[in-house]
């Protein structure tokens, strides 16, 4: 297994980054590739998990070992695959995920894409008491925060749905706030807002 890659981030896409390690480009799948935009053309260490299937071999990347460990724990839960586990870790709320598991808070867990009540219950059954040691080193966010995005008096339903969809994809409020002014210029469908937001984020990378 590849423990980590230390190299230069040379490309960022909506789902992946490319890291140049001694002139070899590694394609790494990330829950939120735009976390790495500040390291574009700079050296960074990415902790990796190699997932092998019959039809594919993929590297998944994380900024911290503890995020990778949480990802590995989530993969042990029936009903959660790499994509779902990556979305949960990439929410940048890993401490809250651990707290929800320990407190049996199904309501919080079902907010993540692909996690229904059955899967949330399975997460609690499989992981309660096994992930709390990760908490001291995980990135912390205010536990009383519901949303960090400012409310806008003229926000329409389609834009609100697009914002929620972007969050579900792993993008954080800081990144979404950067593109909101552009999104608010037009009246679009939810899908069009999402496509425009992804395009703007990529252009800013």
Automatic annotation (TrEMBL):
Annotated localization: Cytoplasm
Gene3D superfamilies assigned: 5' to 3' exonuclease, C-terminal subdomain, DNA helicase RuvA subunit, C-terminal domain, Nucleic acid-binding proteins
Region described as Domain III: 154-205
Keywords: Cytoplasm, DNA damage, DNA recombination, DNA repair, DNA-binding
Coiled-coil region: none
Domain of life per record: Bacteria
Region (Flexible linker): 142-154
Protein's GO biological process: DNA recombination; DNA repair
One cellular component term from this protein's GO annotations in UniProt: Holliday junction resolvase complex
Domain Helix-hairpin-helix DNA-binding motif class: 72-91, 107-126
Sequence segments annotated as region (Domain II): 64-141
Predominant location: cytoplasm
Keyword Metal-binding: no
GO MF terms held by the record: ATP binding; four-way junction DNA binding; four-way junction helicase activity
Domain free text: Has three domains with a flexible linker between the domains II and III and assumes an 'L' shape. Domain III is highly mobile and contacts RuvB.
Family assignment from sequence similarity: Belongs to the RuvA family.
Function: The RuvA-RuvB-RuvC complex processes Holliday junction (HJ) DNA during genetic recombination and DNA repair, while the RuvA-RuvB complex plays an important role in the rescue of blocked DNA replication forks via replication fork reversal (RFR). RuvA specifically binds to HJ cruciform DNA, conferring on it an open structure. The RuvB hexamer acts as an ATP-dependent pump, pulling dsDNA into and through the RuvAB complex. HJ branch migration allows RuvC to scan DNA until it finds its consensus sequence, where it cleaves and resolves the cruciform DNA.
Quaternary state and interactors: Homotetramer. Forms an RuvA(8)-RuvB(12)-Holliday junction (HJ) complex. HJ DNA is sandwiched between 2 RuvA tetramers; dsDNA enters through RuvA and exits via RuvB. An RuvB hexamer assembles on each DNA strand where it exits the tetramer. Each RuvB hexamer is contacted by two RuvA subunits (via domain III) on 2 adjacent RuvB subunits; this complex drives branch migration. In the full resolvosome a probable DNA-RuvA(4)-RuvB(12)-RuvC(2) complex forms which resolves the HJ.
Stated name of the protein: Holliday junction branch migration complex subunit RuvA
The organism's taxonomic lineage, starting at the top: Bacteria, Bacillati, Bacillota, Bacilli, Bacillales
